[in-house]
Amino acid sequence: MPNWEEVQERKIEMQKDAVSSLGKEEYEVLRRVLELEWENRHLAHSAAASEIRKTLRNFIIQEFK
What average pLDDT does the segment 39-46 reach? Predict the structure, then answer.
């Protein structure tokens, strides 16, 4: 069974692999979505959460059009 450090190293490798396959536009969308999630993390369990998800969904749709 792997130890904690091995699990964390593997997690980092998997994240790098996932991001490396993204194109420039996809990477920018991911970056912006993560920024929005971080900025609004305190709202995760509030009524505003659905509004945030709606905003994120609209942003992603616009970026891919």
Answer: 71
